[in-house]
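Lab notebook, bench 4. Still working through the backlog of constructs that have no structural model yet. Next entry is a single chain of 462 residues. Request: give me the structure tokens for it.
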Amino acid sequence: MPPTCSLDCHQPGCEGVLRPSTCCAEEELPGGRGGAAPPGAAMAMGLVRVAFIAIAFIAVVLIGTHSMMYDKLHAKAAADMSHEVRRGAKPVATAGPMAQRAISEPTRSSEPKAFEPTIFVSIAAFRDPECQNTVREIYSKAKRPGRVHLGVVCQRDMDGDADEVCVPPDMADNPSYTIRLNDAPAASAKGPTWARHLAAEMYKGEDYFFMIDAHNKFIENWDEDILAQHAACDTPGGKCVLTVYPMGYESAPHPQQHVPHLCKNARWTRGFPGPFLGQVYGESTQPRPQPFLGGGLVFGPGQMVLDVPFDPHLPHVFFGEEILQAVRLWTSGYDLFSPSRNVLFHHYGRNTRRAHTRHANQDAEIASAYKRIEYLLEIPDPMNPPRPLVDEVAARADPAAWAEIEKYGMGNVRNVSHYWKFSRLDLLAKTHERTNDYWCGTYGGQPPFSNQWKAEAGYPGF
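Model written out:
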């Protein structure tokens, strides 16, 4: 029997394909069953039967041709997917290399198949013994695991402990999971921003993009939950990004008692804000608007990975990536919200952290990376405001700071100075009290929320 849907088809209505009828009704002729038909009717009956047989023969030939063509296309597509090689990525591996595999249909739900948005989950892991459990929970706790496609950058000691392997061996061998793996030696690691760029390179057009860390626990049906939250975002521009520092493991027994809102700045690093703080509230019926981004959870439309790709030119940067990504998204027309409910829990204070290998030219790489951040964020010179700390001439003079600046720079929907006004951060005084009071005080409760942020973001009619 021909298949009901083409390979990797996600369009609604793809269930119906040409196939033969399972029954044929006998023609009722004049005179009824068993009655004698007039001569003219008999001749007509013969012609009808000849025509019917001819049509049936043609249909069978067409169906057979369709089925053969589908089988060939299916085999070719499966072969292409299983042999695909993405830049910087290796096949799924546990102890040895293993081909990437295409996803099968979801197995945990028996509901009728309909359009199911796909989610690409991005993980950048560095010698993390908890990554296997995180990968297992992603699929075991999803309501529809078939829509979850995973991309893992597994930076590990290739000759060391097996606990640094990111994908459970039984899952790496199982064709029921879509897992794309970049298995890389830990000695080549260049920090979280570089690894997140590599993970995002494995995105293949899924409907949603979900960036998390490698050490998390999930709630049941997390996929349905976060999709519903995203749909509830109240943004006139239609570009909602859910982002926060998730609650810790200790909150998992009471998952919705404390829900964080990323509405505070904690301190200033090299002249720019970050990291941030989450104010804890109860769950909400709508995501809460905020100006900040937390790298531990970022969920939004897949298009944002194309509009605002992760910057590979920020090696060894641990502080500064979040404010830079927040401003890049915001200037590209995306609005930031904290989730209204917890879908996962993060392991803070881990005692299994393992050291990075220091590179010979690491100090110079870090200096160029921060020069790039200061230029893009338009940080003012505290000794000579409002002149920038790093102007275009200085940035251009450093090839590493200027590399692909247009591709990985700011958006053209809103500008950087508008963001600083919108966030209420004072770049010269290095203060954030007004920011914290406004964003936590105005948007920390329950909806309906004030529309003031929409007016200040530039949306007309507010």
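Notes after review: Residues 299 and 429 are 32 Å apart (CA to CA). Confidence is low (pLDDT under 50) at residues 1-45, 55-113. Flag for follow-up if needed.
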